[in-house]
Amino acid sequence: MRVLVVEDEAPLADAIARGLRREGMAVDVALTGDEGHEKASITRYDVVLLDRDLPGMSGDDLCQEIVASDELTRVLMLTASGTVSDRVEGLSLGADDYLAKPFAFPELVARVRALGRRATPAAPPLLTVGDVELDPAKRTVRRASGPIDLTRKEFGVLEVLMAAKGAVVSSEELLERVWDENADPFTTTVRVTVMTLRKKLGEPGIIETVVGSGYRVRDTGPVKG
To answer: pLDDT by residue for the chain (225 residues), tens digit each?
Structure first.
């Protein structure tokens, strides 16, 4: 899941970003409304955590811009005011959810995950290729030989590839969907992660390199009973 945190209080923004990254999300941070607008214009985020009181472009204006873009991006408004009228006003701007500060971090994570599910087209409970099964909800992977223990990034790469249903996914897209803006586009991170992922999945291999284009999964045949 790709998340943008637009919050002018740098310590709070950094704390939210660190916490969400520990939950396996790719998180970018913007400290002004203008910076948030620029990033949201370039990258398709699943969820934007948006403070209403921002320097530059206001959170209200940015929310309306995101809603008007017709993307699937969901907006969670953050504000120091928790009055009913304030919540109603925020939701009337097109925000999908509203959370008053201070908030409990587990509640924030739950709300972000719920919005993230709404930001992507409905997916089957299990992603299956050959005898490999990936459960996005439980974050588990199994093969005929049993469960496979993956890191967060390995799981994210495999989930994106399996969800693509055989379509080629470029290294750049994997960086965008699984990592965040701090990832070096010239790094070998994706190649190394795919290499370790292949080793853990074992044979027969399901991840194919398409030279000059990226990676795709290929069905190795039906599950053997």
So the answer is: 889 999 999 999 999 999 999 888 889 999 999 999 999 988 889 999 999 889 999 998 999 888 888 678 899 998 876 566 666 676 777 888 888 888 899 999 999 998 987 766 555 678 899 899 999 878 899 998 799 999 988 999 999 999 888 899 998 888 888 887 666 666 788 999 999 999 999 988 999 999 989 999 987 654 443
HEC-encoded secondary structure of 101-136: CCCCHHHHHHHHHHHHHHHCCCCCCCEEECCEEEEC
